[in-house]
């Protein structure tokens, strides 16, 4: 593979291995990987590496980035900054660092500063769907000053779902984080609801009753409707949710989500002046003008 572009996969978990599988057969690419768990031969990343002989492991984090034209960071959110720091000593001058991790805009900015100080070129990336089944073709928002320049290369190696979100660093990340409020919040709400419902034997009836609500309108209309209902009836809803929390607790499940809902519903009741706005954006602006949220 003489003349092949060297790509380093930083992190060899679910996302790293999905990308490895999509890139491994490319004759124009030379792949290497580094994961701190490679030190344990019994770890899942070590076993995954053994199953993919085309991926060459680096001997250390410091050695990992040497000669790489592109480093793709796919570690856990909590390890993003530490992982970035760990590979800087060997980072090739001008190497692009594509940060796929689900982190806050402020974390992006810190990592970007570290990479720039080491002579690299940082691109933030927000994966806007589960990595499976589309793998490298998943929708990805690119951001930061280097994003537009990186886009043709990204697409050429398989990131067919990539698009530039903003030249301002942190906007792509903010999009992903705000989406996660809904996605991860819904996951937690469903878990709390269904665990309690199963105790009472009513899980099927609860799900059947939600069909009209969740399929009745577009997402903007649904969000507008739900927020207005909270503003108009927040006090009563907070009282109801206290009873919900009691119901959930009586089933043996701690009502973390329900208790959080009590606070948000009670808070919403203070913004009745936001009622009657014609669309979601105007309602949100009215509420935000009255509070730090």
Keywords:
alpha/beta, 12 helices, eight-stranded mixed β-sheet, 293 residues, N-(1-d-carboxylethyl)-l-norvaline Dehydrogenase, domain 2, 51% helix, Rossmann fold, 13% strand
Q: Brief description of this entry?
A:
With 293 residues, the chain is an alpha/beta fold. It has helices at 14-23, 44-50, 61-64, 80-87, 105-117, 147-156, 171-200, 203-209, 211-215, 219-250, 256-268, 280-288; strands spanning 5-10, 29-34, 56-57, 70-73, 96-99, 121-127, 140-143, 162-166.
Topology:
Blueprint: E1 5-10, H1 14-23, E2 29-34, H2 44-50, E3 56-57, H3 61-64, E4 70-73, H4 80-87, E5 96-99, H5 105-117, E6 121-127, E7 140-143, H6 147-156, E8 162-166, H7 171-200, H8 203-209, H9 211-215, H10 219-250, H11 256-268, H12 280-288
Parallel strand pairs: 1-2, 1-4, 2-3, 4-5, 5-6, 7-8
Antiparallel strand pairs: 6-7
Could you name the CATH topology of the largest domain? Rossmann fold
Strand content of the residues, in percent?
A: 5-15%
**What is the H level of CATH, i.e. the homologous superfamily of the largest domain?**
NAD(P)-binding Rossmann-like Domain
Q: CATH class of the largest domain, anyone?
A: Alpha Beta
SSE order, one letter for each helix or strand: EHEHEHEHEHEEHEHHHHHH
Compute the gyration radius: what is it? Answer: 23 Å
By CATH, the architecture of the largest domain is named 3-Layer(aba) Sandwich
Overall number of domains: 2
- Decide which structural class fits the backbone: alpha/beta
The end-to-end distance, rounded to whole angstroms, is: 55 Å
């Amino acid at each position: 593979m003489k003349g092949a572009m060297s790509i380093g996969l930083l992190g060899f978990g679910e996302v790293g291995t999905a990308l490895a599988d999509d890139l491994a057969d490319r004759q124009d690419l030379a792949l290497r990987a580094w994961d701190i768990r490679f030190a344990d031969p019994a770890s899942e990343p070590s076993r995954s590496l053994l199953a993919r002989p085309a991926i060459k492991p680096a001997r250390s984090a410091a050695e990992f980035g040497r000669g790489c034209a592109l480093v793709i960071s796919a570690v856990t959110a909590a390890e993003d900054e530490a992982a970035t720091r760990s590979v800087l000593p060997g980072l090739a001058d001008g190497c692009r660092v594509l940060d796929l991790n689900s982190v806050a805009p402020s974390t992006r900015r810190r990592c970007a500063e570290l990479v720039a100080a080491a002579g690299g070129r940082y691109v933030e990336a927000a994966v806007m769907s589960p990595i499976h089944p589309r793998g490298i073709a998943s929708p990805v928002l690119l951001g930061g000053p280097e994003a537009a320049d990186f886009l043709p290369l990204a697409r050429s190696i398989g990131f067919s779902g990539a698009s530039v979100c903003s030249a301002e660093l942190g906007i792509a990340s903010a999009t992903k984080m705000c989406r996660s409020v809904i996605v991860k919040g819904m996951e937690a709400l469903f878990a709390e609801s269904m665990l309690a419902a199963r105790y009472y034997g009513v899980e099927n009836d609860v799900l059947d009753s939600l069909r009209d609500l969740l399929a009745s309108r577009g997402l903007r209309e649904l969000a507008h409707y739900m927020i207005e209902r909270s503003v108009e009836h927040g006090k009563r809803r907070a009282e109801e949710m206290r009873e919900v929390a009691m119901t959930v607790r009586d089933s043996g499940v701690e009502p973390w989500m329900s208790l959080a809902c009590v606070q948000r519903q009670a808070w919403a009741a203070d913004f009745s002046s936001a009622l009657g706005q014609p669309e979601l954006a105007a309602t949100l602006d009215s509420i935000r003008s009255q509070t730090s949220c």
